[in-house]
Amino acid sequence: MLDRLVRAVPVPPTFFFSASLESDDPFRYLLDAGIDLRHVLHGEQHFAYSAMAYAGDTLTVAERIVDVTSKRGGAMELLTKETAFSREGERIAVATTVIVVRDPEVTA
Fold first, then answer.
1. CA distance 91 to 85
2. What does the pLDDT read at residue 7?
3. Is 27 helix (H, G, I), strand (E, B) or coil?
4. Is 55 helix (H, G, I), strand (E, B) or coil?
5. CA-based nearest residue to 85, from 29, 11, 5, 9
6. Number of C-beta neighbours around residue 86 at 10 A
7. Burial of 108 (0-12, 13-18, 19+ CB in 10 A)
8. Phi and psi dihedrals of 51, rounded to 5?
9. Starting at the edge strand that comes first in sequence, how are the strands of the sheet with 40-49 ordered?
10. Cβ of 101: how many Cβ atoms within 10 Å?
11. CA torsion through residues 47, 50, 54, 57, sign
């Protein structure tokens, strides 16, 4: 009975933001790309929902960079990352995050 009660509790809409930070090293992909975290800003984020997620669900997370755009003559780059959340193969939500990376050596 407790399983049914827990399963009836939907996660809040912004749960997916914090869930993507649950890995051991959530910013490793930036470090692996040679990005100095001192020059990183959170640009924007939005979510697309396809199904409800509930307390107790086991979710699979898949992240990928889908776009890199240079702005202001190279003074900043915008990285767009998509994070897909699935439950047993069913897509639950996609979080799209834009990360701003400043290049302190470029002034424009």
1. 6
2. 67
3. coil
4. coil
5. 11
6. 18
7. exposed
8. -155, 165
9. 40-49, 90-102, 76-87, 60-71
10. 19
11. negative
Tell me the CATH number for domain 2-102.
3.10.129.10
What is the predicted pLDDT for the residue at 56?
Answer: 86
In this prediction, residue 74 carries a pLDDT of: 86
**Is 65:97 a contact under the CB 8 Å cutoff?**
no
Task: Give the integer Cα–Cα distance in Å for 61 and 40.
Answer: 22
Q: Which residues, in sequence order, are bridge partners of residue 67?
A: 80
Which value, in Å, is the radius of gyration of the alpha carbons in the chain?
Answer: 17
CA 93 to chain centre: 11
Task: Tell me the mean pLDDT per 10 residues along the chain, length 108.
Answer: 65 84 85 93 94 91 94 92 95 95 83
Buried-exposed string 6-37: b where 16+ CB fall within 10 A, e elsewhere:
eeeeebeeebbeebbeeeeeeeebbeeeebee
pLDDT of residue 18: 82
